Amino acid sequence: MVDNSVIQSLPLPTFAKVRYNSWQLDEMIPATDKATTPFFMKNEKNGIEVSGLSTTYQHLTEEMTAQGVILMSMIQAKTEHPDLVENMIASVVDKAADRLSAQNFAQFNTGIFVYIPENVQFDEVLHLTLNHLATSGKDLVARVFVYIGSNAKVDILQEMHTIGTQKTKASVIIEVIADSGAQVTYANIDSFGEQTTAFINREAEVRNHATVDWQNAEFNDGNVIIRLASQLNGEGSTSHTNVIGLTTKKQTQGLVTTILNRGRHSLGHIFQRGVILNRSTLVFNGIGKIIKGAKGSDAQQESRVLMLSRRARGDANPLLLIDENDVTAGHAASVGRVDENQMYYLMSRGISEQVARKLVIRGFMGEVLAKMPTKAAQQQVVEEIERKLKHEDD
Amino acid sequence: MATLKVENLHVSVEGKEILKGVNLIVNTGEIHAIMGPNGTGKSTLSQTIMGHPAYEVTEGHIYIDNQDLSEMSVDQRARAGLFLAMQYPSEIQGVTNAEFMRAAINARRPEDDQIGVMSFIEKLDEKREFLSMSEEMAERYLNEGFSGGEKKRNEILQMMMIEPKIAILDEIDSGLDIDALKVVSRGVNEMRSNEFGALMITHYQRLLDYIVPDFVHVMMGGKIVKTGGAELAKKLEAEGYAGLRDELGLNVHLTDEDVNSYFVED
C-alpha cells in the first residue's frame, strides 16, 4: 500500500485546456456494491462482465481454456494467479505516474484480468464489460489488465457503463501489453452515465513488430478525462489510434491521446473525430513523441471537431515532440461544420434536413464506426450516436 | 401526370452567369436529352433544378406542376417528385445503402405508414437483381469504396426504389463501360411509363442508342439553341457542335473546337 500523503504529493495528470480540479477525482471511496445477474452480456463465447465487485457473466470456450487463456475478474485473478497479477499490474502505467493513477493503484478493488499465451488466435471477439454500480453513493476504482503473448492475435471489445443514478466517480486504468509480433485491436465504447465523473487511463506497451490498434469511442454523458497512450517500444511496432467522441448538454470530455515512438521503424498514427453539441466541451490533445534513436519512425496525427452549437466549446491541439532526425511526421487539425455536399446529396433524395444532419454527423465518425470489430458493436455505436444526438435541439 | 417547367432561367455561380435564359418543358411520359459541349451549363441546369445552394437563380423560374421551386428546399423538391442522379455522388461511411434508401422512401410516407422491413427488402432485391448488383451492396456503406460504375448503378437503383415523377440523369453514362451502360440503360427504360419523365444530360450520342429520347435539346453558351427528335443527336455526332453552331450562326466559343483538325476525314 502506498502512503496516502505520497500520493497526494504527486501532480495531477496533465490535460491541457481542461479544467477538472473541482471534479475531486483525487478523493475516491471504492464502492463494494454487488449484483447477481448480467446487465448487458448474454451468449458471448468469450466474454466477461464485471459489475461492481461481482462477476455477472463469464464464459470462455473450451478451446481457449485449453490453450491457457485466462479471463476472469481481478478479484478471482488475485486469488488464483497472485504472482502473475503482482508482476503485471502497474508494469505499463507506473504506480506513481501521477496522483490519479497512483490512487487507483492504491485503491482498486475490482476489474478484469486477461492473459493470452503466445500464438493463441481468437477468431471471434473477446468481449469485456465493466459496469459501475452507482447505487450506494460510492465510487468505481477498477483496473483492467490484458496481456497478449507473442504472435497471438485478438480483437477486444470493451464497454463501460453506469448502472444506477447516484452521483459518483470512477477511476479506471486499463493496461495492455502486446508482446512481440502480437496483433491486437482494442475497441472500446465508453458510456458512463451523466452522474459519473470519471478518469480513464488506457495505455499499451507495444513490443517488437507488434500492433495495437485502438478504436476508441467516447460516449460518456458526464464529465470525463481520458488518457489514451501507446508506447511503441519495439522495433517495427505499430499503433493506429482512432478516437471518436460526442459531447452533449453541459458535459466536458477532455482527451489526451499520446503515442511514444521509442522503437526503430515504429509507426504511430492518431486519428480523432469529435462532435460537440449544446453547451458541452470536447478537447482533443494529440501528442506524438519521437525519442532519440527511433530512426525511421513515423508519427502522424489528424484531429477534427464539428461544432454544432454556438455555445459549444471545442479544441483540437496537435503536439509533435521530435528528438530524432531520421523520421517522418505530420499533423492536421481543424474545427469544422457539417459537410454541405453530403447534406445536399441526402436531401436530394427527399430526406429531411434534420434526418440528413444526423446521418452526416454519423458519417463524420464513420471511419471509426466502420472499424468496430463486430456488427453488433457497429450497431451499438450507431445507437449511441442517435441517443446523444437526441439532445441536439436542447 | 406531372410537368417540370423551366422559364427564362438565368443562373450565376460565384457571380459568373452560366445559364442565360433556358426554356424547357418536361412532362411525365417523355424522355428528353440535353446535349452540348463542355462548359456550356448542362450540369448547372440540373443542379439548379435540384436546388444546390451554390447556384443562384438571378432571373426566371422553375416549376413542378404549378409549384415554384424557388420557395422549396432541396428535400421538398425531391418529395414533390424530382430526382437527380448525380455525376459525383457523396460517400458516407457509417450509413448503409439500405438504411439510406429506406430513409428516402420513408421520407415520402406518413409517420404511421412507414415501409415494412420485408416489403422494403423484397423491393430492393428485385431492383438490385435487375441492375446486376451484388447482394452485399445493401449492407455496404453509402457509395463508400464504390467504383465509378458502381456509383452510377447505385444512382439508378435509388431512382428505381424512390420512383420519382421526373428524374434528371446528369452524365449517367460517363465512366461506364459498354456492359455497364447497357445495365444502366435497362434501368431507365424499365422506368419508362406515363408516370415517369426523364431529362438526360450527356456528351455522347451512344447513350441515346440505348435510351431513345423523344426530344433532344442542344445547349450552347448557356441556352438551348436547338430542339429536335432522336435524329438530331445522330446529326450532331456526325457534324460536331461546331457544325451546328456555324449553321445557326451563333457566336459561341467551344472549349475543344480545334480537335477535329487533328483527324483526317475519309
Automatic annotation (TrEMBL), chain A:
Q: Which InterPro entries match?
A: Fe-S_cluster_assembly_SufBD (IPR055346), SUF_FeS_clus_asmbl_SufBD_core (IPR000825), SUF_FeS_clus_asmbl_SufBD_sf (IPR037284), SUF_FeS_clus_asmbl_SufD (IPR011542), SufBD_N (IPR045595)
Q: Where in the numbering of this chain does the SUF system FeS cluster assembly SufBD N-terminal domain appear? A: 61-126
Where does the record place the SUF system FeS cluster assembly SufBD core domain? 137-364
| GO BP annotations listed | iron-sulfur cluster assembly
Taxonomically, which superkingdom?
Bacteria
| Family under the similarity heading | Belongs to the iron-sulfur cluster assembly SufBD family.
This protein's name: Fe-S cluster assembly protein SufD
* Biological source species: Leuconostoc litchii
What lineage, starting at the top, does this entry show? Bacteria, Bacillati, Bacillota, Bacilli, Lactobacillales
UniProtKB/TrEMBL annotation, chain B:
The family database entries (InterPro entries) matched by this protein are listed as: AAA+_ATPase, ABC_transporter-like_ATP-bd, ABC_transporter-like_CS, FeS-cluster_ATPase_SufC, P-loop_NTPase
Q: Name one Pfam family in it.
A: ABC_tran
Give one GO term, molecular function aspect: ATP binding
Q: Which residues form the ABC transporter domain?
A: 4-246
SMART domains per the UniProt record, alphabetical: AAA
Q: Which UniProt keywords apply?
A: ATP-binding, Nucleotide-binding
| Family from the record | Belongs to the ABC transporter superfamily. Ycf16 family.
Q: What is this protein called?
A: Fe-S cluster assembly ATPase SufC
Q: Which organism is it from?
A: Leuconostoc litchii
- This protein's gene is called sufC
